[in-house]
Design goal:
Order of helices and strands: HEEHEEEEEHEEEEE
CATH class: Alpha Beta
Shape: globular
CATH architecture: Alpha-Beta Complex
Distance between the termini: 65 Å
Strand content: 25-35%
Largest sheet: 6 strands, mixed
Oligomer: single chain
Number of domains: 1
Radius of gyration: 17 Å
Strand order of the largest sheet: 3-6-7-8-9-10
Amino acid sequence: MSESAPRKATLEDFWAIPEGERFHELIGGEIVERAAPSGEHGSAQTMLNGLIALPFNRRSGGGGGPGGWWLETDVEILLGADLLRPDLAGWRRDRHPERPVGIPVRRVPDWACEVLSPSNAKNDTIKKLRVYHQNHVEHYWLVDPRDATLTVMHWNAEGYVTRLRAERGEVVRAEPFDAIEIPVGVLFGDDPP
């Protein structure tokens, strides 16, 4: 007698989790608990957001940076049947004139970034990468506090293409935010140069 495949979780199953306990994502029909963020994770997320938000999270033109983006942290985004919660996400204002709102956000971001946690890295580097690719998220970044690296990928029909891999000690211009320099070590606790 053969065993039947386990039932795939649905959005209804996801929304049944009480909001105060919803530290999960729905990936490929599986409810996946998110890793508890470490100090290294939180610091990398905060520093990266700080580096790009001020110059980019604004209208284009004017002083203070190039602008042109809506940037958010830890928002639930519905991508087909998957509900993901990237550490950082961004929408180009020329494609999305109105700020993405609601729970969940129902607009595909133009950029997503995940800060890797040891217990959950496979989800970010395999499962979520596939979901972002299937939904044509143009730019995908991985920040790895363990290796002190930044990986910058760009969407291609066959799969993401790595455009940049940088480590602590390097200062880079990373698309789509290549109008500014990012000192990679700052993401991992180094003082700015």
